[in-house]
Amino acid sequence: MKLLKLRAARLHKDELCAVDSISRSAYGKSLTDIRWGKNKESLPLEQTVEVVVYTLDSHMPVYYRTFPGNMQDSRSLETILTDLHHAGFADVILVTDRGYEKIRNLETYILKNQAMIMCTKVQQNQVMEKILSYGDFSTRPDGMAIDQNAKIYYQQFAIDYPVESTGTSVKQSEKLRLNLYFDSVRRSEELVQLDIDITEQHKKLQLLLLEQEPLEDDQSLKRHFRYFKLQYDSGERILKSFELNVKKVEKARRTSGFFSIMTHKLDMDAMQTYQTYKLRDEQEKAFQQMKTQMVADRQRTWSEEGKTGRLFILFVSMILGAAVRHTWKTTELYELFSSSLDVLDEMRSIRCIEHTGRAKFITPFVGKQLDICEAFGFEVPNGCAPDYVSRKKHPKKRGRPRKRVTEMDL
Questions:
Q1: Closest to 257 in 3D by CA, of 187, 180, 172, 179
Q2: How many other CB atoms are found less than 10 A from the CB of residue 102?
Q3: Helix or strand or coil: residue 120?
Q4: What is the model's pLDDT at position 223?
Q5: Residue 126: which of 179, 186, 172 has the closest Cα?
Q6: Do 62 and 86 form a contact (C-beta atoms < 8 A)?
Q7: How far is 147 from 153, CA to CA, in rounded Å?
Q8: pTM check: above 0.85
Q9: Please, are residues 20 and 56 in contact by the beta-carbon 8 Å criterion?
Q10: 39: pLDDT confidence band, cut at 50, 70 and 90?
Q11: From residue 229, how far is each of 209, 232, 249 by CA, in Å?
């Protein structure tokens, strides 16, 4: 908590902070938080969920916490908000993706008077109501404006959302806005993919009906055949019949091309919100660096003390990685290297060599390594720079040195 308070003291008012999580598989079997959960890498290992909060200005990590591997992001938000409040993260703007979008969390934002930017699912009732109000359209929904640079349509709606507080009091939302966007290119791609999914699912169901093989569990059936209604024997799990879920398909067609972002306590129009939310893509790059350059894709710990210590070291490493990335983007290194990882790779060949009973020595600094040292304000170690000053000792001339002539002598 002392570390988090120090991180909070470095933030300015209305700092944009992105909240995101990543799953990490664990080899240890005795860790408290390891659970079977959704793993993007499809590894047969239990996992934990690691949450990191980043600033979107300097991309500096300011908070971290671990959760059980089967906990959804939406269920962890209240704990994160409480931690941030106790650590002194006041007057920050939290930016979250759709994984944290729940009515419970929206009401928590309002009750805690927290400024936020939250990507919401188009299936949500408030969003779906706005989409249905457009009716049928060919090119774009009526009432939406277009952004010439982003080439998307947008519209902003003010929402009144009162929430019951303690006792009989009611907390009113402050500047709660729903920003709705429509991408015509994305709509065409999603409609084509929808037809492909329906066709593939129909073929698989016909094969299962013909072969009469036992079906998967109910959860897998919903995931693999979500556009069909299945009739099957619950005991033997043999498919009897199936039909297209017309209502679900129609809903998918209606929402294709739309996406939405909700804001609270902010004076932003729809496109300002859109551009701000896009900044959180940098956080995905930080997670990628954590799993590659920092070799933290797996948890190689078997005790709680080891896990806690390595998490602390990993957090500090991500701070240093963010500092490297910030220096790369704000100096001439941005023109010399395509990414901050290339900066690290350029310095990776330098070695400090130590032989038993001998003095240590460092391999030479050459080429772009000198530019990197200059950008970071590092001094090249003595004897490692390419410029060499001769240390030859010239012999002294015999006799007394010639007396220097002064103006008085003239």
A1: 187
A2: 18
A3: strand
A4: 87
A5: 179
A6: no
A7: 6
A8: no
A9: no
A10: confident
A11: 13, 10, 11
Structural domains of the chain in order of their starting residue, each with its CATH number: 2-182+257-327 (3.90.350), 187-254 (no CATH), 340-376 (no CATH)
Strand residue runs (E) in 201-280: 228-232, 239-244, 258-264
Q: If pLDDT is split at 50, 70 and 90, which confidence band does 166 have?
A: confident
From the number of C-beta atoms within 10 Å of its C-beta (0-12, 13-18, 19+), residue 339 rates as middle
Q: Could you report the per-residue pLDDT of 351-394, keeping only the tens digit for each? A: 999 999 999 999 999 999 999 999 999 999 988 888 776 777 77
The two structure tokens encoding residue 394: 């010239």
The one-letter amino acid code at 260 reads S
Q: Are strands 239-244 and 258-264 parallel, antiparallel or unpaired?
A: unpaired
Q: Which two tokens stand for residue 44?
A: 């047969």
pLDDT tens track for 241-283: 999 999 999 999 999 999 999 999 999 999 999 999 998 876 6
Paired residues of 229 in beta bridges: 243
List Cβ neighbours of 22 (8 Å cut-off, separation of 6 or more): 49, 50, 52, 287, 290, 291
Contacts of 364 by beta carbon, 8 Å cutoff, 6+ apart: 384, 386
What is the distance between the alpha carbons of residues 152 and 138, in angstroms, rounded to a whole number? 15
Rounded Cα distance between 301 and 295, Å, is 13
| Sequence-distant (≥ 6) Cβ neighbours of residue 70 within 8 angstroms | 35, 36, 37
* CA–CA distance, 270 with 155 (Å, rounded to integer): 7
Q: Strands 352-353 and 239-244: what pairing?
A: unpaired
Contact assessment for residue 179 and residue 156, using Cβ atoms and an 8 Å cutoff = yes
